[in-house]
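I hope you will forgive my troubling you with a question about protein structure. The full record is reproduced below for your convenience:

——
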Amino acid sequence: MLLSLASHLLCSWFVFLLPCYSTFKTLSRAPQDGELQILCMYWAVIGAFIAVENTVGPFISWLPFYWELRTLFLLYLSLPQIQGSTYIYKVYLEPFCRSNEADLDAGIASAASNAFEFFQSRVLGATNILFRLLNQHHATRTNEDQGSTDAY
């Protein structure tokens, strides 16, 4: 528990807050050669890591030394002296994305289309339910109003 807390604090500070501030500083002035590229590589690797970790994390987080190894790996990625994210990007992520670019583009387009269709069908279903409830309420009030005028 204590190691998990320490890991979260270290990762929050070194993996997210410091690179976020570094990105702000770089974007607030004219970036020097390669600065923006290094930051983009870093955020791409961190994004890929988070996606993979969210997928397989529940299955492997119980392994011994998981939090310690995770923390060391994230520090390796984030420390500018080491530039681990640049290495991981150039050796693994970029070649993977290049060789699978067409499939990734098709998958993203399909997911976006399916998500839009899903969202659209849910909104249509919700509006149908809402209108049905409103019509029932209106019909009930109309019947009540007619019933009260009949009593006079």
User: Anything to note?
Assistant: Residues 101-150 form the longest helix (50 residues). The mean pLDDT is 84.
